[in-house]
């Protein structure tokens, strides 16, 4: 596209399109690209032609992106699957846009592919990023293709496998206490510098994400009335909102609504604010895109529902059990929201819904155990297996005892308890034992709302193991 400018969707101020523009300076809302020379006929032609060029991935929409081409690892044009068993249970037509089949397992690859290509074309060979785990994994992967060096600032409670994945690509990693605070500092620190700042709410990333809407165009034209998606930072919802706005502007398609699904953690009978680490990225705190989404929630285009972590995990189990589709539990958030919306009458019976699911299937024992324990029969089979194969050592037994007595503790507190009981080990050694117990699914990491520390508690299997040890 020959001419691009930026516009704030909130205050309508326009800005020059440049590598340093991330948020509206006036109201801190995300910025949208506006293609000044784009007209109705050109837009329709681009969309139709792209549907004949799947092999180019998101770059089949190159004329509708800030850069028309770039390195590809196969991102985009993920399949749409009709899940008839679950759909018939709730008397709706339910389809899944399976974004877990992108190169690093999430829809994030779409935006990062565009963002890194844009940075490279503008002469940047160093990127700084403040991001969560999945974004950091994707950014490290695509930057490698361009031989771009990346420095990451990511939360301390990042899942270990993501930390390892980022390290494999040679990226520099800095662990931070607060993602939201570090993001705010970075937006000030890296204005007008020679280092490119890559964040999830960048206009280039939003444009990459919105290609999901363009791929779904024909389903929308045939009667899909809802697109369900998770709201963590709110960037995906913002991008889908922009894509639907463009369909309305250029193709007169304006009867599709967004179902935004947020994580609600304070459930009666649960530890207040406790969120399992496997879905912690849904509860990142208030971000500019999240505020923008909440501002448009009262309009007809967006409805927000809240689900708790237990419901999300049960939805992931149901998807695997009923449809043979296994994804990371966090990726089933949108599906959990659809069920909630149907039961509350937000989504009418017989309506057609597309749920965007994301997150590559996990081989992590803790994640798999979290699913299994929601199924009584499967859990009973696991429980009756010989758990002595775990070879629990003396220190690990004491850690189980400590968590039984104290219910929930963070790493340093566990270490202090061990010292008081005569176990003189280093924090590094304790970290090793904690990871072992997690891999055995005997303890689980959780995040407490408004606290950046990772806490630990016994699983049901851990409690049963401790009882057997006592015998």
TrEMBL record:
List, in alphabetical order, the GO biological process terms annotated in this UniProt record.
Answer: isoleucine biosynthetic process; L-serine catabolic process; L-threonine catabolic process
Q: Boundaries of each Tryptophan synthase beta chain-like PALP domain copy?
A: 72-359
Tell me the superkingdom of the source.
Answer: Archaea
Q: Which Pfam families match?
A: PALP (PF00291)
Concerning InterPro entries, the annotation shows: Ser/Thr_Dehydratase, TrpB-like_PALP, TrpB-like_PALP_sf, WH-like_DNA-bd_sf, WH_DNA-bd_sf
Q: GO MF terms on file?
A: L-serine ammonia-lyase activity; threonine deaminase activity
Which co-factor is required? pyridoxal 5'-phosphate
Q: What is this protein called?
A: Pyridoxal-5'-phosphate-dependent protein beta subunit
